[in-house]
Amino acid sequence: MTTPDTSTSTFDDDTAVRRVDDGSFVADLRPNWWVARGPHGGYLASVLLRSLTEVVADDERAVRSLTVHYLRPPAEGPLSIEVSLDRTGRNTTFVSCTAHQNGKLYTRALAAFSRAWDAPGFEDAPMPDVRSAEDSYRIPHDDPSTPPFLKNFDVRWALGEAFFSGAAKAEVGGWIRMNEPMIGDAIAIATYMDAFAPAAFPRITSPAIAPTMDLTIHFRSALPLASTGPEDLYLGIFTSSVARDGFFEEDGLLWAPDGTLVAQSRQLALLIPPG
After folding, report:
1. For residue 205, what are the CA distances in angstroms to 29, 91, 94, 165, 248?
2. Please, what is the average pLDDT of the chain?
3. Which of 198, 203, 234 is nearest to 215 (CA)?
4. Coil, strand, or helix at residue 92?
5. pTM of the complete model
């Protein structure tokens, strides 16, 4: 008799949720995912998505859309999550959740899960031609300037000018996977979509921090892809076109190594001086 593989990765442990009752969960936010003003936004999105996925509990319904609003940065430690099953149809399920600490609301999220539909299709977002992962700059984990949360990733920088250099484009990109190799399921992909430095950083000329106001991720494939393995790196490219009144938008695209577009994202973030 073969024993099934029930091992989990560090990322699985870091994003784990404990069910309290039918729609209530508790997550323990880990300090290794911290950025300037709280937990990394993609990490928090993954924690919420795990709770939403637990309630949907249908392997045939893949997450297709996730939107998170970040009301305030939570603290390290327990986060209470309340999930509402808003509507379930024959093919699609809509769910939402709120997350609280010490009686205060910190985040809200909405998601849609659906089976694949028999419908027309097209593919007009080919993977761009950039430096290979082997030829790209690997972000060092032992550099004091590397933010702690980035040590969870293997990031290979392939696109974008120096930060705060007044570059002609607000654009960053490269190859990414978890530092501890794991299959790219939807929970991991949600984190990848917020893992790179803000696209605005090469375009502006002075240091800033960029807390996320809201993040929407469209998952363009049911995940994980059968063609991917735990060692695979994904190519992400992130761009912005306008920074005004302290806000900028960022659009992201993420491809699997075989050229399959797995996710698109858009977020609105603040762009403010540090301190």
Report:
1. 33, 48, 42, 5, 15
2. 94
3. 198
4. strand
5. 0.94
Q: What is the helix (H) or strand (E) element at residue 34, kind and residue range?
A: strand 34-35
Number of H helices, E strands in the chain: 3, 16
Helices (H), the chain: 10-14, 41-56, 186-192
Cα–Cα distance for residue pair 179/177, rounded to 1 Å: 6
Terminal-residue alpha carbon distance, the chain: 59
The residue written with tokens 């031609």 in the block is: 129
Q: Which amino acid is at 47?
A: V
Residue type, 211: P
Integer angstrom CA distances of residue 213 from 23, 42, 221, 249, 268? 25, 12, 26, 10, 6
The band of 148, judged by pLDDT with boundaries at 50, 70 and 90, is: confident
Per-residue model confidence (pLDDT) at position 5: 44
